[in-house]
Amino acid sequence: MISAMEVGSPLGRITRLWRYPVKSLRPEALQRATVVNDGLAGDRQRALIVSNRQHARYGKPYRGKEHHLLHTTDNVGEARRWGSARGVVLETRDGGPFFDAAPVSILIDTWLVQAEHITGMPLDPQRFRPNLFVRADASFVATEGELIGATLEAGSVRLRVRAPIERCVTITYDVETGTPMPQVLSELARKRATTLGVYCDVLRAGTLGLGDSLNRLPDVAELRPRHDSA
């Protein structure tokens, strides 16, 4: 017999799946992924670290915030040359993951459509660099804030929603050309508190893939038996 906890309520299905082998560089599209406690296996395991002692980000990853073209390449040598052209010396460092906040990020298409309406332009989901891009179920209406603390399940993986993702200047860069469109961020700030998508922690490692259903599991309190007060 399948319990209510195992069934859950559908949010949608995974239609795109990405990992980012080098932080801030171009992603790798996946069919399936192994998810461990610190995120998708192979995700953000390397980073370009600033080695100029006089630089404000000395010892820290060089990110899209610092260079608008980083997201357009997966070539580490090319990225280092771009940094060098700006006087930034970069070294490649292994031993990640190198995350900003949490190990897994999710973007649901209804949220992206809202952002497109706000900005008045089509938006590639890759601007927002999610791990999971989900096509929403017809019944899905939740905002990011309403999912905080929710337990989600896809494949054999369980996640806990930590927080909405607060966006920065990197979402203004075209994913192919790096051309900036400042209105993407300014309109998102004006109408959506600069947030789009959610960060998640891993509760149970496993595997997931394209076509898998993403379900919200009932809270523990919802599963407790209820008794009449009489």
Strands, helices and their partners?
Blueprint (H helix, E strand, L loop, with lengths): L3 H4 L1 E11 L8 E2 L2 E5 L2 E2 L6 E4 L25 H10 L4 E4 L10 E5 H11 L12 E5 L14 E4 L2 E10 L16 H10 L2 E10 L1 E4 L3 E5 L2 H4 L7
Parallel strand pairs: 7-8
Antiparallel strand pairs: 1-2, 1-8, 1-13, 3-4, 3-12, 5-6, 7-11, 9-10, 9-13, 10-11
**CATH class descriptor of the domain at 4-43 and 100-218:** Mainly Beta
Strands of the biggest beta sheet: in what spatial order? 1-8-7-11-10-9-13
- Name the CATH architecture of the domain at 4-43 and 100-218: Beta Barrel
What is the helix fraction of residues, given as a range? 10-25%
How is the main sheet built?
7 strands, mixed, barrel
| Beta content | 25-35%
CATH fold type of the domain at 4-43 and 100-218: M1 Pyruvate Kinase, Domain 3
What's the Cα radius of gyration? 19 Å
Q: Tell me the number of helical segments per DSSP (H or I, 4 or more residues long).
A: 5
Residue stretches low in confidence (pLDDT < 50, at least 5 long) are 1-7, 221-230
Kindly report how far apart the N and C termini lie: 32 Å
What's the CATH H-level homologous superfamily of the domain at 4-43 and 100-218?
PK beta-barrel domain-like
What is the overall pLDDT average? 92
- Overall 3D geometry? globular
Number of extended strands: 13
Taken in chain order, the helices and strands follow as: HEEEEEHEEHEEEHEEEH
| SSE class | alpha+beta
